[in-house]
Amino acid sequence: MAKHLTQLDIEAILGTLDGWQGKLTWDSLCDAVVKHIGKRPTRQSLNSNKQIKLAFQNKKSRLKGAPEDTKIPPSLAIAGQRIKRLEEENSRLRTENLRLLEKYIIWQYNAYRHGLPEEKLNMPLPAIDRESSK
Predict the structure, then answer these.
(1) What whole-number distance in Å separates Cα of residue 116 and Cα of residue 110?
(2) Measured between alpha carbons, how far is residue 102 from residues 48, 98, 105, 109 in Å?
(3) d(CA 40, CA 132)
(4) What does the pLDDT look like over 114-132, one tens digit per residue?
């Protein structure tokens, strides 16, 4: 059975997707992330993660409409790659932020519907007593 992806693995995979250039397939992504996470994930494990699946679909659709690159100096190419990677990351984070805002609105409505006052929702988490482990 395959190991589950950790949050660090997911972030590394998303970073790889943000900087991706050229043809994108699940197999090519699995091969590319081996050096970052130390194992080759399956297509199914990547596809089952909502963040990765959404980022993959967004990147794939953007790559379909991307124009072919022209010859430019290396320093500009590096800067352009960095800008493109940051734009991709920004786009992915905006999409993820919208998803979280939608979830927050649902939670807000359900809290109101069940009569939970804002004071109860804003109570701090209880302190963890690390001394007693019985």
Answers:
(1) 9
(2) 21, 6, 5, 11
(3) 40
(4) 999 989 999 999 988 888 7
